[in-house]
Known about the structure:
Low-confidence stretches: 4-21, 317-328, 395-399, 466-471, 503-527
Shape: flat
Largest sheet: 6 strands, antiparallel
Strand order of the largest sheet: 1-2-38-37-36-35
Distance between the termini: 24 Å
Amino acid sequence: MVLHRLSVVVSLFFTVASVTAQTRVIVRSGDPVPGVIGTRSFWNFGSVRTGPAGVAFVGHFPDDELARSPAVYLASQDTLQLIAMQGEFAADFADIRFDSPRPLSMDAAGNVLFSSSLSGFDAGTGDPNCWLGNGTDRNSLVPKNQPSDVDGFFYENVGSCAVSDDGLVAGRGQLLSELETRHAALWHYQDGQFETLAYASGGIPGWSGEFLNFESVQALDNNQILFRAQTYLPAYPNLMNDEYGTLWRYHDGEFQLLGRSGQQTTSGLELFGFSSYAYNESGVAYISHSVDALTVAYTSFDQITTEIVSTGDDVPLREGTSILREITGDNFSEASTGLLMTDDGAVLIHGVHINQERDYGGEALWIARPGEPLRYVAGYGDPVPGRPNDAIGYMDHGFNTFYEYAMDPDGTVAFLVPTEQSSWSLWVSSPDAQAPQPVLFSGDDFVFADGSTRTIQQILFDTGRTDSPASRRFTTADSEFPVHLLFTDGSSAIVAITVPEPNGRPGGLVLFVCILAARRRRKSSCV
């Protein structure tokens, strides 16, 4: 199947000049469904995931009973490849089939990691298993309810999974014995081989102590795995009281303790737990709820720990009309949902700035680098340029302002937020921008290459951070980013856009805009 391609002129709202964008419509409602018997057309889509090999997504289409049968596809180059479909045989058992497969992530070779529950006789219960497929071959990472590599146990489930660019899969699963004793387990899978690395109460290779639980497991290139854990270490007995009091790296058969509760930063602050983390090739940035402050810190794989920002630090807020920035005394208050990090050390922080005197505040985004001032990106109450009665977020939504956000390797930030006059709006902020630009709103008209127009009802900015909280992969190898649009007529589309950087160099800076988004009743034309 040949994917739609067109080149359009996109006028970014409220900028001085237009930018020529290379726009690719990946798939839309009504497109034929490849890889199935008979003639089918896509109804709608879901669970969009991005990686170096392209864009993986769930496509829904009618089956013989006209039910919406989901399948996982990989859009790569100019083709759509079927990865797995509901109702297909999932294992070496005649009646066991996939049920509602969905993509998680992918490696650089085009292998899509996906999860699916099972249906059929003796399919078993528990969480979905994980598979790795490329349209030709498909491997279950561990046979469900079969003996594991730990004597006396089998895997009840393999839990959440993540895959690195070079094909290492890692995850947190659960072992079950014949006596129904359950233990959390850390495992990896590579080159067809599955191995349990550690499990709760089973000891820590090379250490005196044991893991009690695992969380936020992430696979990195060069056979590295990062994870948080509840840990018992005799040398640090206080760790027992902290659910995720340690941050670990597994590399070349060894476990390395990167951070622990009670550890001090360079400024002397004492860390307590690791509520979220992100990584680059040299180290890990993380959020730690210390005893008397909330800290964002960075630890290199050489275990040099540097504080980035802490509760009480002054936060730079640009001059403007936002009510939050008219109040004095704003400071960094909370970072609750996660971090993102580029290879050169830029850390995107999702937090809250609050005025303690008036007990008022809202969510905001900042970019930080060790040793540099915090850079404010956007926050609750910021005005929308050119729309004097509109602002980011509104009181009915409380602090649920930034629904999704991402950062590309060059430090461009994209985020999806509600605004007062529109249900959804998509924004971008480049590293050298003075202010973020709103580029798409609910109610905009979307013009396809064939001249047909659909009105946008909802924008889905599906980064998958909940599935892989430490993931940094939000663009394809061609620096494209997919956006999922739902239209008022019930149809939908997945599109990807690449926009040149402000200095004219191609690629790199990715503006997450959709093609020719114009305000309703003010349509644009394709060039």
